[in-house]
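SAMPLE LOG
Freezer: B-3
Tube label: C17
Construct: single chain, 34 aa
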Amino acid sequence: CVRVLMHLETDRSRSELRHVYLHDARALRDDLPE
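STRUCTURE (predicted):
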């Protein structure tokens, strides 16, 4: 099992970022839009 936590600085807005989650892990983040 490999876990990666990455922090970065960008000029992009939050709406331009894409969060990638495996399977149903998205349900763990209730702060993200569907």
